[in-house]
């Protein structure tokens, strides 16, 4: 990989005659978008290959080929490791001429890649990570946090559920930073909306597969809602085991995606409350997008983390047409500034704006998973119970501590 | 020279030449990674190749070194050479503690104890505030060497890594080819006899353990400066497994084996990175192949064919 | 409500009972490991992987062949056990004359390959496997709701453990096995086919793990990492119990499950590390393990 590219560049540089002699592609500018995602690990179905397909669809939908610009989509597996992720980002920027990275995976990876993107002055439009620090103390001028964050999840699920009647909560929290942050944030919203947090139990992370004892504690507390401040297999196990115990309280999955629901099956997951910022069957635009994506990747419906990169790439390419491909390659911070000034619009999130701290604002939807009886077919999983409009869905800019924001 | 045999001298200068020329051809950050892990593998190999103790939890020292260096460099603003030394020192201390507990046993038991102790430290690292938990310690500055030479450029950092690597490599070699190393050899070959000769074998084993842990800590510390992050990956069990693989592939008990092994494994990981889970499968296949058919590893095979010690 | 040590009694008893359930899995898994170690002197790092294969085989039997849980309990261990026999014949048997370390490394490599392949083809999200309808529902025991399936797991594990112990300690086959562990050439000279016994023993140990896997499928996520999560804890159990001791594995397995359960009540953050702490203490005090004899 190293040698061939260097050799190629070396040859092209040393032999201008060859290049000039009608090498048509050398005259067409090329943009490179890198999709950095979990291709093989626990989050493969949340991001993974479908995110790559979504970006490819965005390239096609953007019509940028008509403007005479070539777009290459690369992808790589960060394996949920910050060092691998930052390595790949570094190599992509240094050696492979990548201009924009999207998706981005777990929070640890995203923080690392944001740092590298700033160092190399490139563009990072991240969809996968949850941490709201990306628009808080870790914000920088080369990063936009797309799709969602922990604050959005917490507010939508916490706030809206209390208003819908779930006013006493018990948390089962994965004992690490993410879990703590999630339960703390949701707890704040619950109490802010007039509800009560009656208990919180921390489960060892990673490594806990049996949540029965914790679910029992939750049950005996009499809470109306059990908040699952965990993700991935932890959440899946909690849900399965709650079913097994016949737990009556409503389960609120604080970080659950449609792929999780699909894996659990409606028999087990029916009735679960969760928040996503995208659902394929939400409106005509999302349905259109989903149908187009289905043609490229049949059999799976995208969740918000996979749809996010479509939106990011689509708007990025629109900016490329507005700024010109040469400009967009030169200065990543300038691209971000441009995106913050022009409202975004795409089939996934609809019209939306991007704030000074790099936070994209679009609505958050509180869904409840349908029961087997209510569902009319595969992937017909969600019913909408509440909507938080974009500007309200995310943490107020002044509270984030982002150094980019003028106090 | 320095106790190297002729074959080893040739190999050493070849290695130095490679280190000098490679950054012109290959990506320097990749090479630095190889050197850090080569050092880690050398440290591991010191324990298994020369004392016969297979540690299954060496990532604990590597990872802790990474964390300490990252923390002192970022939060306390220490210069890189001090930060790396701190990483090595803490690695050594941890090695003293773990070693003291584990040396009492041998073989499988030793492996199991080191594994369990490493898992314990992993869990502690997930809880501890200073490690940053899942996010790790990010944005670690490379700083300025001795306060004057900025290491921001990859080539400057490369020079530092190369020097530290070669210095530690030579140190390990000196230790192995010294009277101390002779005692180790005696212990490995026939411990009861060494005891009967009056050697306090446990002390020797513990000393090597501490040294191995300290060097692993240095390797980890360097790595965190090169990449600017220290995460749970550095301290988790798969990392311990990888260093064993490197030593195995390269040739356990040879000096140059771990270096070659590290190069092979890291290159393989790099090339297979687009294929995600195939990396795990490939590593497993390599493990199996090496154990079944290729026990001496690359350098071990070369050494055996040429009837030299490498 | 009665309070014991500041915890409501119903909760405490509930945790104890659930600790027993967890312990059942630890016991079954460490039983297989102990048998394999006792007989082959191999630390079977692939044990977690074959546990996972047991669960996946049960899932596969259901989804590809329509074969349900009860048959899977019998078939999956047989299938995975046969696979274990193949592994033993092709790979492991070649290593008996070598340092133990190589056996560890080989089985470690096997685990990587098995888990990697399964992850490649089935992803990491986990696959659903339902509790068989006969065992759904729960009993109200007064101090807790006991899911029927959990109760079944404890019973099945106990039966399997006791049966295994009986076979090994009380039958003539078991006697020959134990003799072969101590002095294989001598036993071979009696005309007993020791290599065959060894192969079948490995298969049996693997089958035990697969059996545990089928038991686990309905209550845990059937995913490629389920074995890796377990295996290190199970190693600790085996080390504490004594590395070749059947009785040690069973008692320690259940015991540690209870200890872990109690820790979850009083100090949940520590429940992941408590087993290792116990291991360190035991190793310092009784290096051969609680029930072990120095090998």
Describe this protein's structure.
The complex is a heterotrimer of chains A (407), B (310) and C (295). Chain A is an alpha/beta fold. Chain A is built from 17 helices and 14 strands. Chain A has helices at 2-14, 16-20, 24-27, 48-62, 82-94, 107-120, 150-163, 177-192, 212-221, 232-245, 258-264, 266-269, 284-296, 304-323, 325-330, 332-341, 390-393; strands at residues 30-37, 70-77, 100-103, 123-126, 143-145, 168-174, 196-203, 225-229, 250-253, 273-276, 353-354, 360-361, 364-369, 382-388. In chain A, helix 10 (232-245) links the parallel strand 8 and strand 9. Residues 1-25 of chain A have low confidence and may be disordered. Chain B has 310 residues and is mainly α. Helix content of chain B is 73%, strand content 1%. Chain B has helices at residues 6-25, 28-50, 59-74, 80-102, 107-127, 154-176, 179-189, 191-196, 201-227, 237-250, 257-272, 278-293, 297-305; strands at residues 144-145, 149-150. In chain B, strands 1-2 form a two-stranded antiparallel ribbon. In chain B, helix 2 packs across helix 11 (257-272), helix 3 packs antiparallel against helix 4 (80-102) and helix 10 packs parallel to helix 13 (297-305). The radius of gyration of chain B is 19 Å and the shape is globular. Chain C has a two-stranded antiparallel ribbon with strand order 1-2. Chain C has a two-stranded antiparallel sheet with strand order 3-4. The mean pLDDT of chain C is 84. In chain C, helix 1 packs antiparallel against helix 10, helix 2 packs across helix 3 and helix 3 (69-90) packs antiparallel against helix 8. Chains A and C meet through strand 7, helix 9, helix 10 and helix 11 of A and helix 1, helix 9 and helix 10 of C.
Index terms:
heterotrimer, B: 310 residues, mainly alpha, globular, C: 295 residues, two-stranded antiparallel sheet, 71% helix
Write a concise synopsis of the structure shown:
The complex is a heterotrimer of chains A (407), B (310) and C (295). Chain A is α/β, with parallel strands linked by helices and 407 residues long.
Main sheet attributes: strand count, strand direction, barrel closure of chain A: 5 strands, parallel
Strand line-up of the largest beta sheet of chain C:
1-2
The helix fraction of chain C, in percent, is: over 70%
Number of helices of chain C: 11
Separation of the first and last Cα atoms of chain A: 47 Å
Overall 3D geometry of chain A? globular
The helical percent of chain A reads 40-55%
**Quaternary organisation:** heterotrimer
The biggest beta sheet of chain C reads: 2 strands, antiparallel
């Amino acid at each position: 990989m190293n040698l061939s590219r260097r050799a190629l560049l070396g040859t092209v540089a040393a032999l201008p005659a060859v290049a000039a002699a009608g090498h048509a592609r050398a005259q067409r500018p090329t943009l490179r978008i890198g999709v950095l995602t979990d291709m093989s690990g626990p989050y493969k179905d949340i991001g993974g290959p479908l995110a790559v397909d979504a970006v490819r669809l965005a390239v096609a939908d953007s019509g940028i080929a008509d403007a005479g610009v070539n777009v290459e989509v690369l992808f790589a597996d960060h394996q949920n490791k910050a060092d691998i992720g930052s390595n790949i980002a570094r190599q992509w920027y240094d050696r492979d001429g990548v201009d924009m990275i999207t998706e981005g995976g777990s929070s640890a990876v995203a923080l690392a890649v944001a740092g590298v993107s700033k160092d190399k002055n490139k563009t990072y439009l991240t969809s996968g990570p949850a941490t709201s620090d990306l628009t808080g103390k870790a914000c920088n001028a080369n990063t936009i946090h797309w799709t969602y964050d922990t604050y959005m999840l917490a507010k939508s699920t916490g706030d809206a559920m209390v208003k819908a009647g779930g006013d006493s909560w018990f948390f089962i929290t994965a004992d690490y930073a993410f879990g703590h942050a999630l339960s703390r944030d949701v707890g704040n919203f619950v109490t802010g909306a007039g509800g009560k947090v009656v208990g919180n139990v921390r489960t060892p992370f990673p490594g806990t597969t049996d949540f029965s004892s914790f679910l029992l504690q939750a049950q005996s507390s009499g809470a109306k809602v059990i908040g699952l401040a965990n993700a991935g297999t932890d959440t899946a196990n909690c849900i399965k085991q709650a079913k097994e115990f016949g737990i009556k309280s409503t389960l609120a999955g604080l970080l659950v995606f449609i792929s999780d629901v699909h894996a659990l099956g409606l028999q087990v997951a029916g009735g679960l409350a969760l928040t996503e910022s995208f659902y394929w069957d939400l409106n005509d635009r999302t349905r259109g997008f989903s149908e187009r994506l289905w043609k490229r990747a049949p059999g799976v419906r995208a969740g918000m983390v996979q749809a996010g990169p479509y939106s990011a790439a689509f708007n990025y390419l629109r900016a490329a047409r507005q700024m010109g491909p040469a400009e967009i390659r030169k200065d990543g911070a300038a691209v971000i500034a441009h995106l913050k000034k022009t409202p975004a619009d795409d089939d996934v999130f609809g019209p939306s704006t991007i704030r000074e701290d790099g936070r994209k604002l679009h609505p958050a939807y509180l869904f409840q998973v349908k029961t087997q009886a209510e569902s009319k077919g595969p992937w017909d999983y969600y019913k909408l119970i509440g909507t938080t409009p974009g500007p309200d869905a995310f943490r107020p800019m002044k509270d984030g501590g982002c150094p980019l924001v003028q106090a | 020279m320095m106790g190297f045999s002729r074959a080893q001298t040739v190999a050493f200068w070849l290695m130095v030449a490679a280190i000098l020329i490679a950054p012109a051809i290959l990506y320097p950050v990749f090479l630095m990674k190889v050197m850090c892990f080569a050092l880690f593998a050398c440290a591991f190999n010191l324990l298994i190749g020369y004392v016969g103790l297979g540690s299954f939890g060496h990532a604990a020292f590597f990872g802790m070194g990474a964390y300490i260096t990252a923390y002192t460099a970022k939060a306390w603003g220490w210069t890189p050479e001090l930060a790396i030394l701190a990483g090595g020192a803490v690695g050594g201390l941890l090695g003293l503690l773990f070693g003291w507990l584990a040396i009492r046993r041998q073989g499988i038991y030793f492996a199991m104890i080191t594994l369990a102790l490493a898992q314990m430290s992993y869990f502690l690292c997930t809880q501890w505030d200073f490690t940053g938990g899942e996010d790790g310690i990010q944005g670690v500055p490379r700083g300025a060497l001795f306060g004057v030479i900025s290491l921001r450029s990859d080539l400057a950092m490369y020079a530092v890594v190369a020097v530290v690597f070669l210095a530690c490599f030579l140190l390990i070699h000196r230790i192995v080819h010294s009277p101390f190393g002779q005692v180790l050899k005696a212990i490995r070959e026939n411990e009861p006899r060494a005891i009967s000769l009056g050697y306090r074998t446990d002390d020797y084993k513990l000393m090597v353990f501490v040294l191995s842990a300290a060097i692993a800590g240095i390797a980890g510390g360097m790595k965190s400066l090169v990449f600017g992050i220290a995460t749970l990956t550095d301290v988790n069990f798969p990392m311990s497994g990888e260093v064993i693989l490197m030593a195995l592939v390269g040739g356990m008990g040879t000096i140059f084996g771990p270096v070659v092994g590290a190069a092979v494994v890291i290159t393989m990981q790099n090339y297979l990175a687009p294929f995600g889970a195939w990396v795990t499968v490939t590593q497993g296949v390599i493990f199996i192949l090496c154990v079944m058919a290729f026990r001496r590893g690359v350098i071990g095979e070369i050494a055996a064919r040429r009837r030299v010690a490498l | 409500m009665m309070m014991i040590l500041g915890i409501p009694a119903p909760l405490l008893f509930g945790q104890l009972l659930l600790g027993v359930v967890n312990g059942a899995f630890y016991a079954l898994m460490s039983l297989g490991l102990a048998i394999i170690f006792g007989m082959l002197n191999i630390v079977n790092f692939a044990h977690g992987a074959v546990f996972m294969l047991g669960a996946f085989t049960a899932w596969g039997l259901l989804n590809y062949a329509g074969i349900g849980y009860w048959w899977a309990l019998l078939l999956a261990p047989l299938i995975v056990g046969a696979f274990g026999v193949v592994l033993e014949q092709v790979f492991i048997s070649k290593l008996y004359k070598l340092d133990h370390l190589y056996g560890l490394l080989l089985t470690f490599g096997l685990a990587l390959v098995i888990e990697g392949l399964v992850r490649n083809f089935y992803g990491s999200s986990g696959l659903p496997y339902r509790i068989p309808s006969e065992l759904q529902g729960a009993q109200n025991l007064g101090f807790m709701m006991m899911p029927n399936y959990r109760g079944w797991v404890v019973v099945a594990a106990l039966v399997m453990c006791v049966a295994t112990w009986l076979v090994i300690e009380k039958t003539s086959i078991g006697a020959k096995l134990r003799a072969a562990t101590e002095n294989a050439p001598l036993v071979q000279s009696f005309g007993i086919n020791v290599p065959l016994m060894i192969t079948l023993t490995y298969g049996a140990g693997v089958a035990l793990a697969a059996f545990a896997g089928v038991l686990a499928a309905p209550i845990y996520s059937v995913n490629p990492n389920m074995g890796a999560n377990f295996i290190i804890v199970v190693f600790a159990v085996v080390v504490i119990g004594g590395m070749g001791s059947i009785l040690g594995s069973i008692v320690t397995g259940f015991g540690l499950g209870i200890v872990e359960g109690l820790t979850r009540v009083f100090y949940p953050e520590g429940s992941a590390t408590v087993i290792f702490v116990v291991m360190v203490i035991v190793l310092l005090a009784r290096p051969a393990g609680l029930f072990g004899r120095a090998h």
